[in-house]
Amino acid sequence: MTPPRKLHIKSYGCQMNVYDAQRMVDTLQPEGFVETASAEDADLVILNTCHIREKASEKVYSELGRLRLAKDEAARGGRTMRIAVAGCVAQAEGEEIVARAPVVDIVVGPQSYHHLPDLLKRAGGGERAIATEFPADDKFGYLAKPKPETIRARGVSAFVTVQEGCDKFCTFCVVPYTRGSEMSRPVGRIVDEIRDLTENGVREITLIGQNVNAYHGEGPDGRSWTLGRLLYRLAEIPGLARIRYSTSHPNDVDDSLIAAHRDLPALMPFIHLPVQSGSDRILAAMNRKHRAIDYHKVIDRFRAARQDIAFSSDFIVGFPGETEEDFRATLALVAQIGYAAAYSFKYSPRPGTPAAEIRETVSLSEMDARLERLQALIDSQQSAFNKAAIGTVVDVLFERPARNPGQIVGRTAYLQPAHVMASPDIIGQVLPIRIDSLERYSLLGELASPAAPQNTQAAASPVIIGA
Ligand code: SAH
Ligand code: SF4
Ligand code: F3S
């Protein structure tokens, strides 16, 4: 038998890259690959890249520089190391990568991962293989399934892509060019995938998509289903304790989604709803197609449906032409909404996007200053939100042993990490925790009641396992 070949994948960027990396592993396992933690001893290294900001994108080339040394070293030892660039930089730059980095054997865009085995064969024949065709030839149809033991090893919380691509064309953003136009997976395939996951220990699913609430997949009735309708269906899957979705666009929030938050206890009351700016002038220049007031109205609809709902957002500071007054409108919006968390970024001009052509730019020092002011406000809101949990009892889904011996870590409904001293048996369970204190962003507490056995039948007839 030939020894297994070793595969190392390094992912940058968003949750979809995390999910895609797992699908690449699942696709390459039947080809005899096993995962390895270090690039140096791998036979195939895949850089799963992100193009969203210049910094993310440039990381690829410094990483390729390091890999060139590792590849040379492997060659000296008589071993062939192949290097593939996947993800959004692969899609955006394609041939350019091959020209700029001779070390690269394969370039594969996000819609072509099911071609990896074939690309590897072509690379084995001495070709530099590129696959970046758009649109996918039924990418979703060819997604490889993970093995049961692989699912178990990955833990209790999993991502599932339900939608890919974006038709919104915000003027700063590369995603419509790297992930293509919106596509939704059919309901049946999503349900099957999640059933497989829950049968193997997964308790929480985050449905992901660049614009997840634009979901319009085909239902079993042959009609197009909304995300809200899909959520009702998924809530029926046995064993699925928690459902989340990310990322949403404020313009695609329909009544079925609001109703799902009202009706489904498994749907977590925490929504990532990027607004980018609080200035209507900048929102128009960004082609967001909503004003600040429209965003407030969407937030109000969610809050009316479920009182304990909390929000996070993304912000860009220093978009071309952003004045102090525009920036203050962003601060005012944040002050008014009150976020549980938020991400903020300095504007980064991206090749091929309309905003990159605007001459009226904001200076780097001004951008830095604005970022600092915005982050201070967001931080104070996040701290207040976390502090409010102290003294209360909250449900936590336990995920894994923490770094401190004896501690187990899980997450609250709002994705706050929560630590307790407990037996690892609680991993995979949702249990009430009394929160005692806060350490940076982590909640510390104790089980509010002794960890109850998962079902009463087992408690009634004790079975000694392993005796
Ligand atoms: N809807 C997408 C957004 C992806 S990009 C999703 O699924 O997450 C994530 C965030 O990066 C955006 O919300 C935006 O705030 C930020 N971003 C995108 N392009 C950017 C750019 N050119 N410069 C700075 N930040 C950017
Ligand atoms: Fe990018 Fe805008 Fe689409 Fe989000 S909605 S992925 S920011 S173009
Ligand atoms: Fe980056 Fe592509 Fe995701 S650009 S944020 S990896 S969709």
Layout of helices and strands:
Elements: E1 5-11, H1 15-28, E2 33-35, E3 44-49, H2 54-76, E4 82-86, H3 87-93, H4 95-100, E5 106-108, H5 116-124, E6 129-131, H6 139-142, H7 148-154, E7 157-161, E8 163-164, H8 175-178, E9 183-184, H9 187-198, E10 204-208, H10 227-234, E11 242-246, H11 255-263, E12 270-272, H12 280-285, H13 292-305, E13 310-317, H14 324-337, E14 341-346, H15 364-387, E15 393-401, E16 407-411, E17 417-421, E18 430-439, E19 442-447, H16 456-460
Parallel strand pairs: 1-2, 1-3, 3-4, 4-5, 5-6, 7-10, 10-11, 12-13, 13-14, 17-19
Antiparallel strand pairs: 8-9, 15-16, 15-18, 16-17, 18-19
Helix pairs in contact: 10-11, 14-15
Bound molecules: S-adenosyl-L-homocysteine (SAH), iron/sulfur cluster and FE3-S4 cluster.
Describe the structure in your own words:
This protein has 16 helices and 19 strands. Helix 10 (227-234) packs parallel to helix 11 and helix 14 (324-337) runs parallel beside helix 15 (364-387). The strands form five sheets. Strands 2-1-3-4-5-6 form a six-stranded parallel β-sheet, with helices on both faces. A five-stranded mixed beta barrel has the order 15-16-17-19-18. The model is unreliable at 452-467 (pLDDT under 50). It is α/β, with parallel strands linked by helices. The structure holds S-adenosyl-L-homocysteine, iron/sulfur cluster and FE3-S4 cluster. FE3-S4 cluster binds next to helix 1, helix 3 and helix 8.
